[in-house]
């Protein structure tokens, strides 16, 4: 920048940095153009004080002087916010938008978090928090988590992250501490306070107290009481819901959200929309639900009442984009659980399973896509039902034989093509739904037995109309959903009842 002090120059103080720039040049920015009349000599404005990211503001000044710019992830959000504030070229905002959503993955989370505010463009803090909550278990398995600043770890652990147990938050804290324990142990007690003790399983609490770091730090783990206003009133371990999706016609489908006791929370008709963006970091009112044993995904915009269906190949492509380093592979089934991807194949009566599969872990033999079994994951166990109606289970990441569990008389009532298999995180149970009859069966993990627990019905509510609604049940599955995401539907339900 030219540092000569003349009457034709403007002094810009941005935080701790001063710039002197030609008024004629700075007028290229609409924000500054309004400060100066056509005759610059009559202008009485000689100094402006701003409060913007210094690096990004320098990029803008260089751009108006040199006429070119290089967009990077470490400043794209600040740049877009600044360009919008200054009323600059709208095409630049479009370029920032395209670049960000095309390139963002979990690997960029750190640099993105440093730029995001409640009012920032491209993505705001609400959308970012929703992304972090949904992908929490995946995030804590990345190098980003190990290198996080203590304030960032504390902020994340305090969010309504999607977990099946508060012990998973404890495990994430321990993983971060162990990376540099001598330095980070000073934050141990503060981080433990982010755990919602009221909602922790007694068995997990006992395991926590036996942890070597907890004992060596001589920390006293104190449980709390809801009566004391401890802040545990929102149980983040209960964000797993059952979801049914019915195809009504070629343009619409009905999505129902049920709680752990099958009580309906949402019953809404959505429109198919293949133009619905597949951004890795969508708005906070958008959810992704994976179904058909990890072979399909549906993106739901609860606010606009639109949805988009992804087949297996499209889902894998999207998954690779979000994860950033996932190697696309051809397999029979790909499930996600506890922040890990689980690849499962059944071929010639052999079951092969990989946790977080990499290219070098996969046999070079070409496997064709087969839809000859369904599966679900509960905690660290995989449950499989084959086309021959053989039900089996094994522990993930542990060598051992498959355990075969007899379906007995239940087997005679079932047709594989009519079945959905899913699990309920809240009650440690596996559910089997027969779409042809509506029967719901439950496998109790403790007793190792199957039983019929209910019937899904789909009748019109009119007393004189006992005909079933004409629809096709696409799936019965379970998924983590944020209450904030489905809030637009809950508001519509409340308004319609008033």
**Global outline:** globular
Q: Please state the structural category.
A: alpha+beta
Mind telling me the C-alpha Rg? 27 Å
Mean of all residue-level pLDDT scores: 85
Task: Estimate the helix proportion, in percent.
Answer: 25-40%
Straight-line N-to-C gap: 64 Å
Tell me the fraction of residues in β-strands, as a range: 25-35%
Question: Please, how many domains?
Answer: 2
What is the count of DSSP helices, taking H or I runs of 4+ residues?
17
How many strands, what sense, and barrel or not for the largest sheet?
A: 7 strands, mixed
Question: Low-confidence segments, ≥5 residues, pLDDT <50?
Answer: 359-368
InterPro entries: BACK, BTB/POZ_dom, SKP1/BTB/POZ_sf
Keywords: Actin-binding, Kelch repeat, Repeat
Organism: Tetranychus urticae (Two-spotted spider mite)
Protein name: BTB domain-containing protein
Q: What this model shows, in words?
A:
Keywords: Actin-binding, Kelch repeat, Repeat. InterPro entries: BACK (IPR011705), BTB/POZ_dom (IPR000210), SKP1/BTB/POZ_sf (IPR011333). It holds the Pfam family BACK. This is BTB domain-containing protein. The chain has 498 residues and is of the alpha+beta class. It folds into 2 domains: 104 residues, Alpha Horseshoe (Serine Threonine Protein Phosphatase 5, Tetratricopeptide repeat); 259 residues. It is 28% helix and 26% strand. The strands form 5 sheets. Strands 7-8-9-6-5-4-21 form a 7-stranded mixed sheet. Helix 3 packs across helix 4. The termini are far apart. About 2% of the residues have low confidence.
